[in-house]
């Protein structure tokens, strides 16, 4: 299936096509399994990996359950190019502490942290919520949490830390600012307790979002390829800087791209690695990348590493991240200007 690019896309998109993968799943010893999977994904040339999470997982996990941010931080010093994107519910959590966790992850990974801001009803129940709020209220709190995180990341200017040991001066307090946020459900004064992240701001991912939500990357999908592409166009038109397609894959299975075993709204592919490469090449004409959900991570990841990623790299559709590059750079996103420094320098 050949997909024609939109006429205006050349003015908007770079040549970067990001390939991400979800690495959450079962394993007898979570640390060993995660380490092996992350190393395999990085060696293959994936742009980023996401780590799913829930305070109340659907099924017991052998060896216990460690939260997504901690798992991402665990593998951060063991990686050099792979973007690390934990899934963290933006609702029913303390946004001040969450922003600090994510900023710390960005330091641990040397500028490769992301945040998939999701809504999780199980999280609400785990926090003791007696009744779930409306979808509009939950969405509003997610948007507010993202805004608070961005303000807190900007509350330290890039040169706020002085480190003048001879003079005994380690911080320029004039370079610290209050976030001063008041929303419908919470307020945050600030400033942050962690200096501004290496990327300026951690890359924010979200599902089916709009440009007004303060998101850097939208993950969209659909039951069919045309549905997924329509979602790409809608998110791009709304102003989201980067739009990626969520894609479930079952390599070696009978071809079927119109049904999904796990998510009815998510695009599903079943077939050979060669056919998957064709589909990804076609999607690259309209989307800024994909996030793959393998049916069997430990079976499909080696096949992706041997056949799919090399083909995309050879054709120039994907680009292998290099050590020292940030997740923002690998996604074609600019480093954000600090809002407070900009105001002061007007």
Could you explain how this protein is built, in words?
This protein is α/β, with parallel strands linked by helices. The protein has helices spanning 30-44, 68-75, 95-108, 121-126, 135-154, 225-238, 273-283, 297-315, 327-330, 339-344, and strands at 18-22, 48-51, 83-89, 114-118, 161-164, 169-171, 181-182, 187-188, 203-207, 217-220, 242-251, 267-271, 289-294. The protein has an 8-stranded parallel beta barrel with strand order 1-2-3-4-9-10-11-13, surrounded by 5 helices. Strand 5 (161-164) and strand 6 form a beta hairpin. The radius of gyration is 20 Å and the shape is globular.
Write the layout of secondary structure elements.
Elements: E1 18-22, H1 30-44, E2 48-51, H2 68-75, E3 83-89, H3 95-108, E4 114-118, H4 121-126, H5 135-154, E5 161-164, E6 169-171, E7 181-182, E8 187-188, E9 203-207, E10 217-220, H6 225-238, E11 242-251, E12 267-271, H7 273-283, E13 289-294, H8 297-315, H9 327-330, H10 339-344
Parallel strand pairs: 1-2, 1-13, 2-3, 3-4, 4-9, 9-10, 10-11, 11-12, 11-13
Antiparallel strand pairs: 5-6, 7-8
